[in-house]
Here is the input.
Amino acid sequence: MDHFEPDPRLVEDSYPVTELPLCQLRLMNDTRFPWLLLIPRKRGISEVFELDEAEQQQLWREAGRIGQAFKTLMEADKLNVASLGNVVAQLHVHLVLRREGDDAWPGPVWGQGEATPYDLDGLAAMRDRVLAMIEGLDLRPEAAKAS
Here is the structure.
């Protein structure tokens, strides 16, 4: 992998959870919405098509499997998957769980009210839940499965 640093704005708004085969997984610091970020550990990438084909497949493998498990774990009504990049150009994918009647329902979460940060205990608990959740997921690239 290229030398990778997440954009400072992503670092400011989220906490690291773990490193996946392609992405750094982070937890957004807003208790109103269970919200994960996937940031491919590739320098200078702002669009999905700038990843090679295998990396694109891996990004969607990580997003799909983690999103499905996260939705089940948190008993959410809907999983929103987004890669906007209008404010932070560095490629990153949002996995935002939604519940009917949440603070922004049915609209988007962006620009809705003020974030409610995790306290240290809540952060540790959510991070532990997410780590336990992904422990059982096979996120290896297809090439690694064949060997």
